[in-house]
Design a protein that fits this description.
13 strands; alpha+beta; Helix Hairpins; 7-stranded mixed beta sheet; 7 helices; 3 domains
């Protein structure tokens, strides 16, 4: 610590750490040949949050400084295509400035006078070099490359007749074909695989990517604009296609960025990063039913499986609901049976009380005519009448209780029916409640198998549309279908 010339000391919690810092600080001050006049122990003890003690051996004394949180709104790490886009205006401006400066510093050349060139005697045919039929900017032979650079050829899957028809389909008026030539353009072919995992649903899905990108520029390969191919590594060729005389094949020059194995390796690393950040696997799921659309499963099979799961869930919920209501209804039915038995007993008791009341009334009448005491007979008759009335009231109460129980049972059965219908409607409407989840790969789930210089074939078609000769270009290789 004594070798440090500038110290930023913050809040220290432990006394041992504080003592070590003070010891080192005193040693640094002594090494600088200065006297210790400041009470650093007190200063350090009073430091708060985001407050630092600055000690510089070149300064006169310590400084207490405050800091604050700051947030940067600048864009994060830039990709190579983004660097290229940001630098494009500056590079164009620099090139324009350089051209202007060169024009100002170079003296104007005198105007040349065009004069007829006298005819010369033709050389013998044996010494004349064969005239090249390659289009401007193309070579008759394949350029020589660094042996460490791997190169492949995309197979010619579109013949010249299909290319002419494709050009017509694009709106070209082809009156007369002048020439059809096969050109090869240097591009970047990439083959990679991306794995997606979902441990919860036990999903393991691999997606193979075969891509064709334009040759890299200052910003690297723009994988966003790369074309998807249906060509696996096994389907690639190791030599150009054979065509008729005069049709080529002809080759475009190879940029320096593609004739370097080290740069191609860096391109492979960029592709791995791009696939990691931009690859997703869309998974159609039904959250409530806990079902998902299996890869390679048809839509019809998926919906049939959803319907089966919904029926099973509906039946299970209905059975659970019915079991609950059946227990409650059964309790009410037990109470109803008990009330009905009680009603039968009350009716029997009421019949007995009525009979007793009639007998007592008869005895009172007979006693009156026979001259017996009427007070006791009258009291007995009134007692019998009272008991008959009580028995009749018990019957009425039992009947009311029975009526209430029957209403409760009917209401509960209606409630069961209503809730069962709601469950049925709920599961019928669940079929449309699908959502999409995106699975992201892990870094180790991206595997770049091949990145190579790829010669992409094109048919260069020159034709006469009745006004003048025009050129059209049609890819001769197979691109990925829309379904893929």
């Amino acid at each position: 610590l004594t070798n440090a010339g500038t110290w930023f000391i913050g809040k220290l919690q432990a006394e041992r750490d504080k003592e070590r810092v003070l010891s080192g600080l005193k040693g640094a001050i002594a090494e600088a040949g200065k006297s210790e006049k400041t009470d650093f122990s007190t200063l350090i003890s009073k430091l708060g949050s985001r407050v630092f003690l600055l000690h510089n051996v070149h300064a006169d004394g310590p400084v207490v400084m405050h800091t604050r949180w700051a947030q940067s709104y600048l864009r994060g790490p830039l990709t190579r295509p983004q660097v290229r886009d940001l630098m494009a205006p500056r590079l164009a401006a620099a090139a324009e400035a350089a051209a202007t400066a060169a024009a100002q510093s170079t003296p104007a050349a005198p105007t040349a006078e065009i004069t007829p060139v006298p005819a010369t005697e033709a050389a013998p045919a044996e010494s004349a070099a064969p005239a090249s039929t390659a289009p401007i900017g193309y070579l008759d032979v394949q350029p020589a490359l660094d042996p460490a650079v791997e190169q492949v050829f995309l197979p010619v899957d579109v013949d010249e007749d299909a290319a002419v028809n494709a050009l017509r389909a694009q709106g070209a008026t082809i009156g007369k074909l002048v020439s059809v030539q096969l050109l090869y353009e240097p591009t970047v072919y990439a083959a990679a695989s991306v794995n997606f995992f979902d441990r919860k649903r036990n999903i393991t899905q691999q997606t193979d990517r075969f891509m064709l990108a334009s040759a890299p520029d200052r910003g690297g390969v723009d994988w966003e604009r790369a074309d998807a191919l249906d060509l696996t590594v096994r389907e690639l060729d190791d030599r150009p296609a054979a065509v008729d005389a005069g049709q080529g094949p002809y080759f475009a020059p190879v940029p320096e960025e593609l004739n370097d194995a080290r740069k191609l390796k860096a391109v492979a690393g960029d592709l791995s990063d791009w696939l990691y950040y931009n690859s997703t696997f869309a998974l159609t799921v039904h959250t409530e039913l806990d079902e998902y659309w299996h890869p390679n499963e048809s839509e019809r099979d998926f919906k049939a499986r959803l319907q089966q799961t919904a029926r099973e869930r509906r039946d299970a919920d209905v059975d659970k609901l019915s079991a609950k209501f059946e227990r409650d209804i059964e309790k009410l039915q037990d109470k109803l049976a008990k009330a009905e038995r009680s009603l039968a007993e009350d009716k029997a008791k009421w019949e007995n009380r009525r009979l007793e009341e009639f007998v007592s009334a008869g005895e009172s009448v007979m006693g009156y005519f026979l001259g017996r005491s009427s007070r006791r007979a009258l009291s007995s008759a009134m007692s019998k009448r009272r008991m008959t009335s009580q028995a009749q009231m018990s019957i009425q109460e039992s009947e009311a209780a029975i009526a209430k129980l029957r209403e409760d049972i009917a209401a509960m059965e209606e409630d069961l029916k209503t809730q069962t219908e709601e469950i049925t409607v709920h599961y019928a409407q669940l079929m449309d409640e699908l959502s999409t989840e995106e699975l992201k790969p892990r870094r180790t789930d991206v595997n770049v198998q091949l990145v190579a210089l790829a010669w992409a074939p094109y048919w260069q078609i020159r034709f006469d549309d009745g006004l003048r000769e025009r050129d059209g270009s049609v890819p001769a290789y197979r691109v990925a279908s829309a379904a893929a």
